[in-house]
Amino acid sequence: MAIFFSVLIWSAINPKDYFTWLLETAPALIALIILIATRRRFPLTRLTYNLILIHSIILMIGAHYTYAEVPLFNWLKVTFELERNNYDKLGHLAQGFIPAIVAREILIRNQVVAGRKWLNFLIICICLAISAFYELIEWFVALVSKEAAESFLGTQGYMWDTQSDMAFALAGAVSAIVTLSRLHDRQISKIAAGQPLP
């Protein structure tokens, strides 16, 4: 909580644009409310909480600068002669990676589906649905507010930005399943057995 609120406060101090800041931090703030409301009846694994924190930090950094102007990624753009600031791609990779573990935990612990193949398929479907829904929100904001559209969309003139964002979310979801499933299973087992996590 200390890390979350420290970054949130830093992010809120003189951001590029307050309306864009609110739009970009909203998912982190909504997640915080949900996590506080469910912490007793459905506590998550330490891995899941840590990943949600990382995702929240990514959102808050993007909210402060706007995704197209994060300084480190501007430096990378100049240094490696890239066509654009790719911080938003990190955000969309995380948009697949972190929700994959959250979805995985909810599906396993509620015994929604039997069999790992169906589990993995549903996790990827959920992550792609979240990514598509977010792209629809970006489109709606662009229609309603012309001023915030470019900052919030962050397309930087790339016509395939929406499809690219969803591809990064897909890559993130698959990467999370491949790299973290065993660790996640161990932590879920400890919760099921009522053991404290390290």
Name the features:
single chain; 198 residues; mainly alpha; 8 helices
Provide a descriptive summary of the structure in words.
The chain has one domain. It has 198 residues and is an all-alpha fold. 77% of the residues lie in helices and 0% in strands.
Task: Chart the SSEs and their pairings.
Blueprint: H1 2-12, H2 18-38, H3 46-65, H4 71-79, H5 87-109, H6 116-144, H7 146-153, H8 161-192
Helix pairs in contact: 1-3, 2-3, 3-5, 5-6, 5-8, 6-7, 6-8
Strand content: under 5%
- Which value, in Å, is the CA radius of gyration? 18 Å
- N- to C-terminal separation? 18 Å
Structural class label:
mainly alpha
Order of helices and strands: HHHHHHHH
How many distinct domains?
Answer: 1
Give a quick account of the main beta sheet: strands, pairing sense, barrel closure. none
Give the integer mean of the pLDDT values.
89
The outline comes out as: globular
User: Counting H and I runs of at least 4 residues, what is the number of helices?
Assistant: 8
| Low-pLDDT sequence parts | none
Please give the number of β-strands. Answer: 0
How much helix, percentage-wise, in residues? over 70%
